[in-house]
Amino acid sequence: MANNINFGKIYDSTWWGVGVTSNNINWGKSYLDLAGGGDERFIITVKTDNAGTSATDKFTLPTTGTGYAYDIETSDGQVITGLTSGTTITFPTAGTYDIFISGSFPQFYFNNTGDKLKLLDIKNFGIYALGSTSQAFAFWGCSNMVISATDVGYFGDVTNFSLAWYNCSSLTSFPLIDTSSGTNFSAAWLGCSSLTSFPLLDTISGTNFSFAWRFCSSLTSFPLIDTSSGTNFEFAWQGCGSLTNFPANAFDSNIASNYTNAFATTNLTTQSIDDILVSLDTSGVLNGTFNQSGGQAPSATGQNAITTLTNRGWTITTTA
Questions:
Q1: How far apart are CA 23 and CA 156, in angstroms?
Q2: pTM confidence score
Q3: What are the tens digits of pLDDT across the range 83-126?
Q4: Which of 32, 65, 233, 277 could form a disulfide with 305 if both were Cys (CB 3.0 to 4.6 A apart)?
Q5: Does residue 199 contact residue 224 with C-beta atoms inside 8 Å?
């Protein structure tokens, strides 16, 4: 602020990469929301000669549904405008390029097909997911992709995250995006085998967590996220073979009864399995199913919780 002038507002029209020209200076080329300080372009890196359905000098942006109105610039100098659906970009030679997307781009839709192996990095979310309510199947199969972006995109209205990052096996970390509206997280991170940690995402609205973190085999611990609305945890952490630490009180307020194979083939410590069993007991839910295998057996504390749960109609299987 200076003399009651909000200089950031001068450049509102550059948010989506629409140029503002003054004295022959194209201010829009900065693509900055100067009031917020961030680049609003969706920026990705691709390697065109990785395996895919397009030729070795091309990359296809996969889309689904409506809501697309976007422009593209590429690191080799191409400008493509007025796009409303998926498109294939042809580069001068095979190689690695950055693609800068501005406008409205609600969702990628790789769905385990196309040029999924050509996507190397999400460098900036920018306008990505603006106007989207579903990210289902978005990056499924993008097994060479990492996320170096430090911004959060526009995920706040997304309700469906099912299979969104399924088999993104090169991800070692995941960003703290807004998942507060998400209800369906089924298989969202299934097969993300290189994830070593998981952020404290807002999952308070989530109902379906089946297969959500299955085969995230490098996770050693899990945060205390709110899954109290969840009804289905079938296979949720199954195959997380390095998972030793799970938080206490995780299920105190949960309403779910389906934890079938939720912790099968994990590596939980006695303290963690005790905490899980005590938390399920605290929830007061009747007639549930719970399975754990691998790792350590529960102590007397966990066994007491098992006794109470079985008296309430639960079927409990744990490491002996």
A1: 38
A2: 0.89
A3: 999 999 999 999 999 999 999 999 999 999 999 999 999 999 99
A4: 277
A5: no
